[in-house]
Design a protein that fits this description.
about 270 residues; 12 helices; about 75% helix; transmembrane helix; membrane
C-alpha cells in the first residue's frame, strides 16, 4: 500500500469529519481537495463511504437518544413520532437521488460546480439568518416536530444532492425557514444524517462491489476512522456554537472559499478537473 495514498485518505477523512455537519458541504470539500491532492476513487465510493465515519460520531454523541429510540419503537408515542418524522424527511431526497444519482455525479461532481453552489448557498444562508431574526420560531424542541415539519425539511434536503450545497446546510436552513428553532433544525439534521448516509453508502458500495480491491478497503478504513474522530469534535463544537450564535460566519466562509476557486479557474492559476 502506497503510504502517500494512505496519507491522502487520512487528510480527506479529517476534512469529511470536520465538514459533514457544518453548512459548508463535506462532499464539495472532498471534491475540491481530492482534485488538489489528485485523489480520485471509482464512482466516488471512497468519498461516500467515509461519511459513515462522521455519521457514527452522531450516534456516539446521541447514544442515549438512539438507545431510547431502539428500545421504545412501538411502545413510546414520542419515539414513534420521532421515527415517523425521520422516515418522512428521508423519502424526498432518497427518491430523487435514486432516480438521478448517475446524472448528478456525471455532471456536477467537479470543483467549478461545487464553487458555484458554495457561493449561492452562502448568500442563501445570509438571507435565511436575516429572516430568522425577524420571526419567533414555532418549533422549539425536536420532539414537538409534526410530520409536515419533517416533510419540509426532507424537501429541502433534495437541494443537497447538488455537491457544494451541503446536506446539513439544506436541512438546517430549510427547517429554519419553516419555523424550526436553529438548535432544533441542527439536531434534526444530525439525526436525519444517519439513515440518509447509511442508505447512500450502502447503495454505492453495493453498486460498485465488484470494483473493490484490498487497497480500496484499507483506504476507506483509514478515511473512516479519521472522519469519525474529526466528526465527533465537529458535532460537539457546533452544538456549543449554535447555542449562542448563528450561521452567518459559515455563509461568508462559503462565499470566500467558492470565490477563490472560481478566481483561480478564471485566471488559469489552477487546472481544475471538469
Amino acid at each position: 500500500m502506497d503510504m502517500i495514498l494512505l496519507f491522502k485518505a487520512l487528510i480527506l477523512g479529517v476534512i469529511e469529519g470536520l465538514t459533514e455537519f457544518l453548512p459548508i458541504s463535506s462532499t464539495g470539500h472532498l471534491i475540491v481537495f481530492g482534485d488538489l491532492l489528485n485523489f480520485h476513487s471509482k464512482g466516488k465510493v471512497f468519498e461516500i463511504a467515509i461519511q459513515l465515519g462522521a455519521v457514527l460520531a452522531v450516534v456516539v454523541e446521541y447514544r442515549q437518544r438512539f438507545i431510547r429510540v431502539c428500545t421504545g419503537i412501538g411502545r413510546d408515542n414520542a419515539v414513534n413520532r420521532f421515527v415517523l418524522n425521520l422516515a418522512i424527511a428521508f423519502v424526498p431526497a432518497a427518491v430523487v437521488g435514486l432516480l438521478f444519482n448517475k446524472q448528478i455525479k456525471a455532471v456536477l461532481f467537479n470543483p467549478i460546480s461545487v464553487a458555484c453552489a458554495l457561493v449561492v448557498g452562502g448568500f442563501i444562508i445570509l438571507w435565511v439568518e436575516k429572516r430568522a431574526s425577524q420571526f419567533v420560531p414555532k418549533v422549539k424542541n425536536v420532539d414537538d416536530m409534526r410530520p409536515i415539519d419533517a416533510l419540509m425539511v426532507g424537501v429541502a434536503q433534495i437541494c443537497a444532492l447538488i455537491p457544494g450545497t451541503s446536506r446539513s446546510g439544506s436541512t438546517i436552513m430549510g427547517g429554519m425557514l419553516w419555523g424550526l428553532e436553529r438548535k432544533v433544525a441542527t439536531e434534526f439534521s444530525f439525526f436525519l444524517a444517519v439513515p440518509m448516509m447509511v442508505a447512500a453508502t450502502g447503495y454505492d458500495i453495493y453498486k460498485h462491489r465488484n470494483d473493490f480491491t484490498a487497497d480500496d478497503v484499507m483506504l476507506i478504513a483509514v478515511g473512516f476512522v479519521a472522519a469519525f474522530g474529526a466528526g465527533l469534535l465537529a458535532v460537539r463544537a457546533l452544538l456549543k456554537f449554535v447555542a449562542s450564535k448563528n450561521y452567518v460566519p459559515f455563509a461568508y466562509y462559503r462565499i470566500v472559499f467558492g470565490g477563490i476557486i472560481l478566481l483561480t479557474y478564471v485566471a488559469g492559476w489552477v487546472e481544475w478537473a471538469d
